[in-house]
Specification:
Number of domains of chain A: 1
Largest interface: A-B, 27 and 23 residues
Number of helices of chain A: 3
CATH class of chain A: Alpha Beta
Oligomer: heterodimer
Number of domains of chain B: 2
Order of helices and strands of chain B: HEHHEHHEHEEHEEHHEHHHHEHEEEHE
Number of helices of chain B: 15
Distance between the termini of chain B: 58 Å
Shape of chain B: globular
CATH topology of the largest domain in chain B: Anaerobic Ribonucleotide-triphosphate Reductase Large Chain
CATH superfamily of chain A: ACT domain
């Protein structure tokens, strides 16, 4: 199952490494990454494959959210379908 | 080139995080027609058992979808066959135990509301319909989250004025019985004209007799998203406004359709409809009134409000209809005063009055909704307000509804607090002149002509 992970927050050293480490620990494969700094805010979007994840997707969502909070980041993980549904005919 | 469009993804995230985008409700309709029994206790047992069996996974499934897709699903609800049709077979005068059974099933399944303590009496009342209506004050005051509705008119049948008169007295009685909570019981009761059978929104949801055994209906929301989109076209002509609303409604509805299909698949229950409604909440930035003001009105309720609402309501439908495989329910902009921050503000200032709200209901969904009126408003005046609203629905072939709260002990200018999504309502004035002789006539207002329309 493919999902979109978005990471938004104040820029700091090691955000990508931290998030990627979290994902790899849970068996989630990163397919694509786009990252920019928008008005001093770090904004990263990742397309991931969570079909081999070690934990249910809902738990992964929670884990990322909590880990993000601890770092002052807002991390969302959502199934890719919702973005396709809203923006593609 | 990345395999995704960053702007689209961030747009969606902002809509959810900052613009209150949500799915307002997943409502499972459950037919209770197979629960009739001459013994009322046995009937209530069957009702409880069938609802719990049908909807036991509804809340868990809703929460799973919410987590996986990252879209808030605010309510999970159940609607059932109008209870008058089910309880009619039972040898009993008091239908309150049926409401108690519904409330017990609601608590067991963990849903937010259960609707269907209802009767359809647009042409006439059966003894069961009358017993149900007479049970409403006890049933809705003695249960927690059971909603009721009565359909008193339709374009094909006209308006049942005996039922209209009875509903005025019923609302007063229900308000008196829930006086401690400022008449809160009345927030759970809707009087309809042209009620629809697949409405997922409360308090008026019931599961129509032409529906399948079980069905999943979804109500979307998103006034905040529309408001935000219109801020980017300030001063543009109305063609641009309409196009902007349409595009936004399309996106909102696509999300609702996705959630509806996913819920239907996971629950193994057929998908019914997506209801394309703009349902406000009392939260700042989630208001229908503020959308109208964004179109250039100093305040909601001033001249131009009805035209602005007409455009909004139509554009929401045009945008949404292509986004869903099946559209139904009420589908339009809601204007519940207590549930809309901008409406509350306009009503508190006195710029939004009952008469203007009535005019607005001619061009939108649904009617005079969540309006607090003085506690000493007579039953006849409430009936006359219902008759006016039903007439608008009857003549214009649309659903209209009345959900008034004659708040006991409150007078014009007082504030009535309901809490949560139901918000707070400033008590609004009604005309003091009597409509008693009009209401006491009873009988039926005949169905209107459907041609020679002018």
């Amino acid at each position: 199952m493919r999902a979109i992970v978005t990471v938004i927050g104040k820029d700091q050293v090691g955000i990508i490494a931290h998030v990627c480490a979290l994902l790899s620990q849970q068996g989630v494969n990163v397919l694509d990454i786009s990252q920019t700094i928008l008005q001093e805010y770090f904004t990263m979007i990742m397309l991931v494959d969570a079909s081999q994840a070690r934990i249910p997707f809902a738990q992964l969502v929670k884990l990322l959210e909590e880990e993000g909070k601890a770092q002052g980041l807002v991390i969302h993980a959502q199934r890719e379908d919702i973005f396709n549904a809203m923006h593609r005919i | 080139m990345p395999m995704f469009n960053s702007n689209e993804i961030l747009d969606t995230i902002h809509m959810i995080d900052q613009q209150h985008l949500d799915v307002r409700t997943i409502t499972m309709g459950v037919s209770l027609l197979d629960c009739c029994d001459p013994d009322p206790k046995a009937a209530c047992g069957k009702i409880y058992e069938k609802i719990v069996r049908s909807a036991k996974d509804l809340v868990r499934t809703g929460e799973e979808i919410e987590a996986e897709f990252g879209i808030p699903i605010v309510n999970k609800r159940i609607s059932v066959t109008p209870i008058a049709l089910v309880a009619g077979a039972s040898l009993t005068e008091d239908y309150t135990p049926f409401a108690v059974a519904l409330d017990k099933a609601r608590a067991e399944t963990g849903v937010n509301f259960i609707g269907g303590f209802s009767a359809l009496v647009q042409k006439g009342m059966t003894p069961a319909d009358e017993r149900l209506i007479r049970s409403i004050p006890a049933a809705l005051s003695e249960t927690e989250l059971v909603c009721g509705s009565v359909n008193v008119g339709s374009t094909k049948a006209g308006i049942n004025m005996d039922a209209v008169a009875l509903m005025g007295r019923t609302i007063k009685d229900l308000a008196a019985r829930t006086a401690d909570a400022a008449g809160f019981g009345c927030a759970k009761l809707v009087v309809f004209c042209n009620a629809v059978e697949d409405n997922p929104f409360m308090a008026g949801a019931f599961h129509g007799v032409s529906e399948p055994d079980r069905v999943v209906n979804v109500g979307v929301s998103g006034p905040g998203v529309v408001y935000h989109a219109l801020q980017s076209v300030k001063g543009a002509p109305f063609d641009v406004v309409a196009e902007t609303v349409k595009k936004t409604a399309f996106r909102i509805t696509r999300m609702g359709q996705l959630v509806a299909q996913e819920a239907s698949r996971r629950l193994g229950v057929p998908f019914g409809i997506v209801d394309l409604s703009l349902a406000p909440t009392p939260a700042i930035g989630d208001s229908v009134a503020r959308i109208l003001e964004e179109m250039g009105l100093e305040t909601c309720g001033t001249h131009g409000t009805t035209a602005a609402l007409a455009l909004l309501n139509d554009a929401v439908k045009k945008g949404g209809v292509m986004a869903s495989s099946s559209v139904g329910g009420l589908s339009g902009a809601f204007i519940p005063v207590s549930e809309d921050e901008g409406m509350i503000a306009a009503a508190s200032r006195g710029t939004l009055c009952l008469d203007k709200l009535e005019a607005m209901t001619c061009v939108c969904s649904v009617g005079l909704d969540m309006i607090a009126v003085p506690g000493d408003t007579s039953a006849e005046t409430i009936s006359a307000i219902i008759a006016d609203e039903a007439a608008i629905g009857m003549v214009n072939s649309k659903t209209t509804a009345v959900r008034l709260i004659p708040a006991p002990g409150k007078k014009v200018g007082d504030m009535v607090e309901f809490g949560g999504l139901l918000g707070s309502a400033p008590v609004m004035p009604v005309h003091p002149e009597s409509s008693a002789d009009f209401v006491h006539r009873g009988g039926r207002i005949p169905a209107p002509m459907q041609s020679l329309k002018n």
